[in-house]
């Protein structure tokens, strides 16, 4: 089996990640790909030290002034790093289709803005990435 996993790091842009998911789901239906193309999300909470400094400086302010920084803090506390993992799992006689999808996906619009990484079945880190893909829900 020719199997590759494309990893797209969207940072904190959840909207772009959802657009990418919608695009992949459309391809799966339109081209009748079934389980040949699967995707999963990997989310990771982001904790930055800069937010703690803002909270410390916001404490001595008046109550009316505190409301504005706390609204910003709520947005940053809930910030998560979003990665989209797309697994292409084509059989050996579908090498051309596999290569075309490998070339096409990173050039499409929602995927252009993300940092992309491709892990092919022959790469040394492929078993580790495949295990990570399988462990995601």
Summarize the structure.
This protein is of the alpha+beta class and 137 residues long. Helices cover 48% and strands 26% of the residues.
What value does the Rg take, in angstroms? 20 Å
Strand order of the largest sheet: 2-3-1-4
The strand count comes to: 4
Helix and strand succession?
EHEHHEHHEH
Instruction: Report, as a whole number of angstroms, the end-to-end distance.
Output: 23 Å
**CATH class type:** Alpha Beta
The helical percent reads 40-55%
Structural class: alpha+beta
Poorly predicted regions: 52-74
The major sheet is characterized as:
4 strands, antiparallel
Please indicate the percent range of residues in DSSP E strands (runs of 2 or more).
25-35%
List the helices and strands and how they pair.
Layout: E1 2-11, H1 14-30, E2 37-45, H2 49-58, H3 63-77, E3 80-90, H4 95-104, H5 109-112, E4 115-120, H6 126-135
Antiparallel strand pairs: 1-3, 1-4, 2-3
Helix pairs in contact: 2-3
Describe the structure.
This protein has a single domain, classed as Alpha-Beta Plaits, CATH 3.30.70. It is built from six helices and four strands. The protein has helices at residues 14-30, 49-58, 63-77, 95-104, 109-112, 126-135, and strands at 2-11, 37-45, 80-90, 115-120. The protein has a four-stranded antiparallel β-sheet, with helices on both faces. α2 runs antiparallel to α3. The longest helix has 17 residues, at 14-30.
């Amino acid at each position: 089996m020719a199997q590759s996993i494309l990893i797209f790091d969207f940072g904190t842009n959840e909207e772009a990640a959802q657009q990418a998911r919608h695009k992949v789901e459309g391809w799966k239906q339109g081209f009748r790909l079934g389980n040949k193309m699967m995707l999963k999300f990997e989310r990771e909470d982001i904790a930055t030290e800069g937010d703690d400094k803002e909270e410390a400086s916001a404490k001595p302010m008046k109550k009316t002034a505190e409301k504005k920084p706390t609204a910003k803090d709520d947005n940053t506390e809930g910030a998560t790093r979003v990665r989209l993992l797309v697994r292409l799992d084509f059989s050996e006689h579908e090498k051309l289709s596999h290569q075309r999808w490998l070339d096409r996906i990173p050039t499409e619009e929602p995927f252009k803005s993300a940092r992309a990484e491709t892990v092919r079945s022959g790469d040394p880190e492929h078993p580790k990435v495949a295990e990570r893909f399988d462990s995601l829900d």
